[in-house]
Amino acid sequence: PPLHSLISAPDFQEVASHVLTPKAWAFYSSAATDLVTHTQNKALIRRLMFRPRVLRDVKEVSMKRTILGCESEAPFFVSPAAMARLAHPDGECALARGVGSQGVLQCISSNASYPLSAIVKAGTKDQSFFLQLYVNSDRPKTAELLQKAAALGIKAVFVTVDAPVPGKREADERIAAEAVASAISGAVASNDKKGGGMGRLMAQYVDKSLIWKDIAWIKKVSGLPVILKGVQSAADAIMAAEYGASGVMLSNHGGRSLDGAQPSILVLLELHRICPDIFNKLEVYIDGGFERGSDILKAIALGATAVGVGRPYLYSLTYGDGGVEHLTQILKDELETSMRLCGITDVDQAHPGLINTQDIDHM
Ligand code: FNR
């Protein structure tokens, strides 16, 4: 279908399910075992209800946000996802162009199909990027990548902490992988006797022995702010602040790691309950199941600085940079409408009082 006929993130998902190769669809859409966490990520966001305010002059609206020191036209960004080339030959470069034209930020995966320098170069001159990091068991390789990232002007490092080993993604295992490699990490997916799980095969280099004190090393080598991606409890958010992280990203890898892990929105509520002052110490980001502007507004109202969007961007990439740009506009439009209907004109005005959390407060 023509791009202009798509009007929502689920529309892009529907098209992607038909046009992606069966392997790419399986890799992108899959999640761990019974998809409990994957399904509940979205379901629980939907169980939060707005408490809109009225009569507040909502003619002019601003969605601008500063994300880790970078100006963004909206409080959402591209979550890092491996191997964007399976959706479009230009892969992560097309993503960079698509969001760059919209003033939206991109976090590049360690397992991207294109080299870091090519992706950065695809963006506009003043476009900012973040790098997601899987620490390699071969530590000098990670040091080299971090130094390269700093030299290329990458603004922050998102260290993924929810996947010391990959989750068991059965749809991905069941379809044989063509041999593909990441131009950043060098990870290769092929097949073995367990199956064709691209996620699993590309994770073989990841250091399973990573611990809290390694965060200081990553900061030192890169000279960049470090965000821990995949924090799933208040206890670990508190430790993240103690160990010098600039932020946390509440995430369960889109339900691809531990199935049954609590949905990210519950972790956000847990921070309010257990360590409300953490919002003054750390920037809090979140992802998993956000596909509507209204979904994004809920997390912002509950204290997130910005929301990561994963699969919807991969699906939009089936239309190249035009699709990425179009999805970004759709999310901005939906967010703007939701803000107006909630009675706010700036994302900074969003606050917990706008959200009725009763339905999931005792989970
Ligand atoms: C991911 N994700 C991910 N995370 C990460 O830290 N490094 C990575 O290389 C990848 N790769 C990856 C590939 C694919 C195909 C998907 C779908 C996801 C997880 C990603 O950053 C993010 O946490 C989730 O995708 C968020 O959930 P939604 O928005 O997809 O529901």
What does this structure look like?
It is an enzyme of class 1 (oxidoreductase). It comes from Lophiotrema nucula. In the C-terminal section; belongs to the FMN-dependent alpha-hydroxy acid dehydrogenase family. In the N-terminal section; belongs to the cytochrome b5 family. This is L-lactate dehydrogenase (cytochrome). Its EC number is 1.1.2.3. The chain is of the alpha/beta class and 363 residues long. The chain contains 15 helices and 14 strands. The protein has helices at residues 9-19, 22-29, 36-46, 91-100, 116-122, 139-151, 170-174, 198-202, 214-222, 234-242, 264-274, 278-281, 293-301, 311-316, 320-342, and strands at residues 49-50, 65-67, 70-72, 76-78, 106-108, 129-133, 157-160, 180-181, 188-189, 226-231, 247-250, 283-287, 306-309, 355-356. An 8-stranded parallel sheet has the order 4-13-12-11-10-7-6-5. Helix 4 (91-100) packs parallel to helix 5 (116-122) and helix 4 (91-100) crosses helix 15 (320-342). It is globular, with a radius of gyration of 19 Å. The protein starts with 8 loop residues before the first helix and ends in a 7-residue tail after the last strand. The model has no long low-confidence stretch (mean pLDDT 98). The structure holds ligand FNR. Ligand FNR is lined by residues 27-28, 41, 79-82, 109-111, 132, 160, 229, 251, 253-254, 256, 287-290, 308-311, 314. Residues 27-28, 41, 79-82, 109-111, 132, 160, 229, 251, 253-254, 256, 287-290, 308-311, 314 line the site of ligand FNR.
